[in-house]
Amino acid sequence: MLDAIFNVTLAHYLVLATILFVIGFVGVTTSRNVIRVLMSLELMLNAVNINFVAFNNHLNPVLDNGSFLLSGQAFAIFILCVSAAEAAVGLAIVIALYRQRATVDMEQFNLLRG
Amino acid sequence: MTTWLTENVWMVPLYPLAAFFLIVLIRAFTWNAEDESVRKGTRTLSMLLTIAATLAGLIHTVPLVGALLAGTLERTEFNYPWIQAGAFQLSIGYLVDSMSVMMLLVVTFISLFIQIYTHGYMKHDPGYCKFYAYLALFNFSMLGLVLATNLFQMYIFWELVGVSSYLLIGFWFTKPSAAAAAVKAFLMNRVGDFGLLIGILGLLVFTYGWWQQHADQYVLLSFEGIAALAPEVGLFIPVATLTLISILIFMGPMAKSAQVPLHTWLPDAMEGPTPISALIHAATMVAAGVYLVGRVFPLFEMSSTAMAVIAVIGTITAVIAATIAIVQVDIKKALAYSTCSQLGFMVAAMGCGAFAAGLFHLFTHAFFKAMLFLCSGSVIHACEDEQDMRKMGGLFRKLPVTGATYLIGCVAISGLFWTSGFWSKEEILIGAVDFSPAIFWTLAVTAGLTAFYMFRSFFMTFGGQYRGETHVHREDPVMWVPLAVLAVPSLAIGYLLTGTDLLGVHIPAFGDMIVPPGVEGGAHHAAEHHAAAGALSHEAIALISMALGYGGAVLAWLMYAGPLKALPERVRRMASPLYIFFTRKWYFDELYGAFVRRVYLVFAEGSAAFDKGIIDGLVNFTGHSVMGTGAALRQLQTGRAQTYVAVIFFGVVVLSLLLIYWQL
């Protein structure tokens, strides 16, 4: 029973990641607040990170001498760095936008409308 | 001396060109001068510059003419590269031979006296300086045309004389009729020049290989080369195409020398000042067409159809113009139609193969027709710009020199006695009788008509009683002296050039001096060759032309000065449809008007509708459809980042599905 509960397979990770990604995607596309959009974006990135780590474990099992490859994890760390930078830039832009338009409502940022 | 003059004959056209630029330069400094003496000085200087330039040309030419008469003139040709593109090279140069020397003499001699005359005629005209400048420009163009070595060079100067003619016909451009006449002349000549250009290019396209082979001998399209090419031209061009090319080339002379059906501009060109009518539209420029035919004569000779077409067109022109001249009451119009008719004689002679006869008539006609026009100018000037002969009459006593010279001109053009016109016209008739009896008889009757209408105009103007109201002024010496001078060649030059001795010096016959390049002998030999074939003898021809000439002259005297004065009115009433037909100039202008309205404008409107509907429609449709698509697609551009994100996301999803399920 416990075994069945704690035997976490790749599928579990993927389902989790998918759920996170969809939540993030819905957040990105439907939120009107820019901050929430940025937060949802982080969710989507983290869903990808989970995928990377899960697939790394699945594709690169532990070798006989006890060593194992960590390329998926390396990607995940990269993505964390990039997303941190992206969040910094994104928040800076949000502040600039706020100074300009006195709002953070996505609906108001439609200068490119055809 | 003669060699130097021959080698430097390029100076002859450059004298008047220099005069032209000097006058323009002087005018640029003095055009708004207040001082009366400055303005007067400018006028005098313009006149003197132009006359001096022409005189220099004449002096340059006279020794060459002497050499021609003495038989020592050597054919000289100089060419300079003008346009070069690979092996293709156009040249510009100058050519001295019997034909060009003859034309140089005609142009410089007649120009000189007309320019002197102009001083009297245009004395009170505000455009006096401009007129002299244009005269100089025309002289440059005409002399350049005469000296051209090849068809391309001739074409350039051909257009230049056209421009000068346009400027001078429209000299009094504030008068709407003059402006219209200038445009008409220009357009009619465009039609002809278009044909000429196509003809030249056609000839070049077919024979370019031959010119390449002989590049070291003959300059591209040179007249000498054309004469050498002509005998073997059949190797390059099928006869039908050659005929077409010849007729296309002949379209140039048709317009320039006012041949039917492109003749209608010449009578209208009489809107220009009378010295211009004398110089350009009687003596020199209109003869350029005949000159061009003479230059490419060897080529025309290769197509008998083309020759026949030329002969027939010339004959038709001679007849039509003569019939119109009979009923003209405007003295200048009558002379204009007479010019047209005489040019028809020349062209017909060319077409009949009587090369020298055509050029001989050109030569003699230039003198007496220039004189006749100057006489008409003198009359018009004396009658205060009256041109209607019905309001003249009895002017002989008031204008004795004009009257006498006009009579000489009439006698000469009618071919009476031993005047110059007699000799040249007889040569043409001799040439025509060998070619075709129909053309011969038509031309002979036309010669009778010529005598009739010329003497009619003489008796209407100078005979009887004065019918006008204005006071008739006296003649001005500056105007009658040129008349008197031109009367001498009008009387004598024909006889002189029939192979006579003058003061112990033998002067060769015109036909022996001027022979077409590549042809041995010329018209004389051809005529003698055919005379045995049972045609009319030369004496009979001379008698016929004399009889018809005298008949015409006597009839004119009877009807307009003699006992049958009531006859013209009765004839007019009896033959009224014919009379109206002639006074309306055979309805050529109406025909062209109708053609333009009914055919050309309809076609143009159709084309415009096609352009506006189909062509513009296609272009506009493209524009509109792009705009419509854009209007539809712009709805996608919401300007909201979230829409774009969604589109990208679903795009990736669709692409992934495609990759996975369809293995793309």
Structure description:
The complex is a heterodimer of chains A (114) and B (664). Helices cover 73% and strands 0% of the residues of chain A. Chain A has helices at 2-6, 10-30, 34-59, 71-101. Chain A has 114 residues and is an all-alpha fold. Chain A starts with a helix and ends in a 13-residue tail after the last helix. In chain A, helix 2 packs antiparallel against helix 3 (34-59). Chain A contains 4 helices and no strands. Chain B is mainly alpha-helical and 664 residues long. Chain B is built from 27 helices and 4 strands. In chain B, a hairpin with a 2-residue loop joins strand 3 and strand 4. In chain B, helix 14 (304-327) runs antiparallel to helix 15 (331-351) and helix 15 (331-351) runs antiparallel to helix 19 (437-462). Residues 520-533 of chain B have low confidence and may be disordered. The chains are: A mainly alpha (114), B mainly alpha (664). Chains A and B meet through helix 2 of A and helix 27 of B.
Distance between the termini of chain A: 59 Å
What oligomeric state best describes the polypeptide chains here?
A: heterodimer
Rg for CA atoms of chain B: 30 Å
Class by alpha and beta content of chain A? mainly alpha
Describe this structure in a few short sentences.
Helices cover 73% and strands 0% of the residues of chain A. By secondary structure, chain A is mostly helical. With 664 residues, chain B is mainly alpha-helical.
